[in-house]
Amino acid sequence: MTSEQPTAPRATPHVGGADDDLEKRLDDELTAFNTAAADGARTEPLTVRVTDEAGTLIGGLTGWTWATLACVDMLWVHEDRRHDGWGSRLMRAAEEEAARRGCTDITVSTYTFQAPGFYPKLGYRERGRIEGVPGGHEDVYFHKRLAPGTTGKVLGA
């Protein structure tokens, strides 16, 4: 008895730089897969922006929520305003919105040359580090439990 395997069509990987079409296709495919695996939960963008009276950007935050999980992707405050409390206010606003959306957990990562001392002051607990960041740095991962429908309060910090 002979078992023949069907021959797969020939394929060649192509390596390059930015590829908007590929990025969109992968996002669409993974979103569909993840939505199915999470009982229909869809990822929703989350942004917080702070501007002054003139409309100049002071700082901002981008991230997403997905069912009970929120994640902060980027947090930035203009260098001249970094010690005015805007980072904390941006994070609190994101936590409040995440909790309003039903999130119970929020995550964020930062490099050791950025702000690893900032997040514990807001109730985040370090959950892991990955070495190998250029310059001998590490990527530090943080997590915080939220009480849904509250104002970003910590549960069991």
From TrEMBL:
Coiled-coil residue spans: none
Domain of life of the source: Bacteria
N-acetyltransferase domain residues: 6-147
Disordered: region residues: 1-21
InterPro entries per record: Acyl_CoA_acyltransferase (IPR016181), Bact_Acetyltransf (IPR050832), GNAT_dom (IPR000182)
Pfam family, one: Acetyltransf_7
Keywords: Acyltransferase, Transferase
Keyword Plastid attributed: no
Record's keyword annotation contains Acyltransferase: yes
Protein's name in the database: GNAT family N-acetyltransferase
Organism for this UniProt entry: Streptomyces plicatus
